[in-house]
TrEMBL record:
Name of this protein: Putative dual-specificity RNA methyltransferase RlmN
Co-factor(s): [4Fe-4S] cluster
Signal peptide location: none
Radical SAM core domain location: 95-239
Amino acid sequence: MENLPNILKNEPAFRKKQIYKAWFDLNINRYEKISTLSLALREKLKNIPWLTVKLKTLQTSKTEHTSKALLELTDGEVIETVLMGRDNKKEDKPAELRYTICVSTQVGCPMNCAFCATGKMGFKRNLTTEEIVDQYRYWQKWLGKKGKIDNIVLMGQGEPLLNYDNVKNALNILLDNTDIGPRKITLSTAGVPSAMEKMIEDKEFPTVRFALSLHSATENTRTKLMPSHQKDFLKFLIE
Ligand code: SF4
């Protein structure tokens, strides 16, 4: 079966934007319903799944504020994503729930941190741009009008900076099509110096918050905990 990137390969940028906008419209549930697209393009898209993830298992906390979903991808691989609710109490208004979602960026992870179950799985593949965005779309659809996602943390399975292009595209799509601003999105990394340098220079990389898992400020201990630690990383970090 054709996939979305192949079908859109020769389409102008505005077409892709129309599709991305439709992804976030809860009244649309398949490509054929995007009325701004030509009939010919809608025909080509009609067999493409509207969401690239589907629920495998869901666990919800007693307070019902936190849920963890295992999502199955179209090739049968499975990833984890978490929804965390919190009261947004304002003095004179009733409390309303706001949500943070924790998003995965890879199936498995090659960084092999000693304390991490995902690291033990090894690395299977990078998530596509759609699969990253679809974790947000999955939760927003699940919540419906009951709640609003206003924070995204890239702290799920995988090292985001090892999936640089797809993470960058996904973040730009989320920023363009939701009212979540860059300061409400956090990219968390175990530290990939080459990608960190690239990100600083890259004008198209959105100015989201950046979190680094340090775990230890000495090279020896950090190397034991995080075998991906590169020599002189701490010096690089200070500079
Ligand atoms: S980078 Fe993150 S996901 Fe990967 S092994 Fe380390 S803690 Fe686990």
